[in-house]
Amino acid sequence: MLLQIFNSPIASGAQLFLLIVCILIGLGAGLSAMDVRSTLFKKKSEDEH
How far is CA 31 from CA 13, 14, 19, 22, 38, in A? Predict the structure, then answer.
């Protein structure tokens, strides 16, 4: 599916747009996961004290 999209003769701008969107989604997921971990660790440390 992805190979068909990138091999299809669409404008290079559209390919670049798809690539940027995928990168942004990946970064957003990573940052949200880090936020969840930090909040969980903060709550645990506060409960211990």
Answer: 27, 26, 18, 14, 10
